[in-house]
Design brief:
By secondary structure, this protein is mainly alpha-helical. Helix content is 80%, strand content 0%. The chain has one domain.
Length: 236
Amino acid sequence: MVLQGLLLDSFRFFRNHLFSILLIIVPVVFPIELFRTRYAESLVGQESNLSADLPMLALGLLAYPIYAGGVIFFIASVISGNRLKVRSCWLLGLKYWGPFLLLSLLLGAVTGLGFILFLVPGVIALVRFSFAEFELLLKGQSPPDALRKSWEATRPYFWLILGGYLIIFAAVYVPYFGLIFVLEDLKVELGIFEVLLDTLYAVLSVLFTVFRFRVYEFVKERQNLGLRPEPYDDPI
């Protein structure tokens, strides 16, 4: 089955290149999460509001294009056989920081609005814009064009992508959130452990990126062979 093969390839890639992925993500994310925890501790006893949370939200958003873009360039370089070093991945992330930040804001706004509107539109947007980051970083498309091309390319593969997302979420994130729920229910003082968990969350999120990229490559292969896109009605 197509979905099974794509998922197995994705998990295998993630496992084989986990160390490099950690090197790209952890040096950026860990200090931010550590600072976020200390910042939250400084606000203990104060009423939570948007103005208090805004500095950390902005910091996370500003850093995201560096490591997320770096991960995408790393994945593409491994697939092409010209593996990049970690430093080169960060530099490429910085090079495309502006367009990637704009794309991230657009994706967040569209997807977030979709989830507010009874969830289903948010799921549709999340799936149909799955290729936007690759179109922007690897094809040099502008943010609006990247969104448009992704919307067009993913239409026949909606259920394939959604099926992969659901399986990855069930296999990885359900245990992750289950662990957090148990720790909170036991009233365990997380401290530095919370920082590690949040950093782990960022690392595990790469599984979705790897899967999306694998589907992206699969679609390109079919196009290069002149094959017509086939709708995948059954995600299993």
